[in-house]
Design goal:
Helix content is 19%, strand content 38%. The protein is of the alpha+beta class.
Amino acid sequence: KGKNIELYYWAGYNHEVDFILSKSNQVIAIEVKSGIEKEKLPGMDIFSKEFQVTKNLLVGTGGIPLNDFLLEPVENWFD
């Protein structure tokens, strides 16, 4: 409440990014993975080339543990 953070989903070029957070001039792309192996992230790569992304976050396998991510207040992911 009152954080002025917007949440989006992005899809394009047959790829997607699970979550996009936007606040002022900052954009964070978030991909969530639950598999055993670390996968490539072509959606995040394409999105980051097209838009001015402040930060890319991988949540789950190979990245930030899901519990840690969910316990962190969303505004803390912004600089």
